[in-house]
Structure formats: C-alpha cells, structure tokens
Amino acid sequence: MKRLIRVPLYIAAIAAIDAATWFTLTGNLRAGVYPTTADTIAIPLAEAATSTIIAGSLVLATLLLSVPEWSFRKAALSRSWAIALGCIFFLCYLAALVFFLLWGWDWFTPHHYPIAATCGLAAALVAFFGGTDLDRLLPNNSFKP
C-alpha cells in the first residue's frame, strides 16, 4: 500500500509543472515580458503538453516495475532476476530523471524559473523513488563478495 502513494505524487508533480508553465507564461504575457510582435504562447504550451505525455509514459514504466510485489519477491529468490530487474530499474529511472532535468534546463531562462524549479522537484522525486527501489531490490547488501 505504501508504494501506491507514488501514483498521486507523480501526478501532482507533473500537474505542478503544467500549472507552473501555464501561470508563468500567461503572467509573462500580461506583464509584457514577451514582445508584442511575438506569435503566441500556444507553442510552449503545446510543447509542455507533449512533454507531459512523455513524462507520464516514463513515470508509468517506473510505476509498473516498482509497485507490484512479485518482482521483488522474485528478485529475492534469483540472483539473475535481481540483476536484470536492477538494470531495468536503472534504465527506466535514469531515462525519467534525465528527461525531467532536461525539461527543466529547457526552461532555465529569465522569467521562467518557476517552471525549471518544478521540473527539478519532479526530478528529485524520481531520484528518491529510484533510490528506495534500489534499496528494496538489494536488501541487507546481499551482493557483497
């Protein structure tokens, strides 16, 4: 049950990024930060929507691996399954972490720092859950020589 708390936390993190994007872009437009000859803010909003879909699929991959208990029970019984699951975890969490960091880096410009900050918080959430899954995968340092 404790691992199911990840679902609303991930949803809240991605929704916070979208909300920060919306409020920052519309606030900047009202404040006159963007030139009057600029097209529209629809392009960055569409980019944020596309990034949300990609982030959601990466987070879903990590959730499908980390929430079911059978994967960790199988890893406790078989060393090869633990190694394979560890590699898959590492790749999924690394992809999600790099995606959130690059998404934040894309918005790391003046007048857009709240978007970058929320992306950084989502990346920290992914890193924290990745660390807890690795800790669950290797209980009691079972792979010490």
Note the topology.
Layout: H1 6-31, H2 42-66, H3 69-77, H4 79-106, H5 113-137
Helix pairs in contact: 1-2, 1-5, 2-4, 3-4, 4-5
Number of domains: 1
Radius of gyration over all CA atoms, rounded: 19 Å
Percent of residues in helices:
over 70%
**Count of alpha and pi helical runs:** 5
The largest sheet, given as strand count, sense and whether it forms a barrel, is:
none
Strand content: under 5%
Order of helices and strands: HHHHH
Terminal CA distance reads 33 Å
Overall spatial form: elongated
Mean pLDDT: 86
What is the number of strand segments?
A: 0
Unreliable runs: none
> What oligomeric state best describes the polypeptide chains here?
single chain
Alpha-beta content class: mainly alpha
Structure in words:
The chain has helices spanning 6-31, 42-66, 69-77, 79-106, 113-137. 78% of the residues lie in helices and 0% in strands. The chain has one domain (2-138).
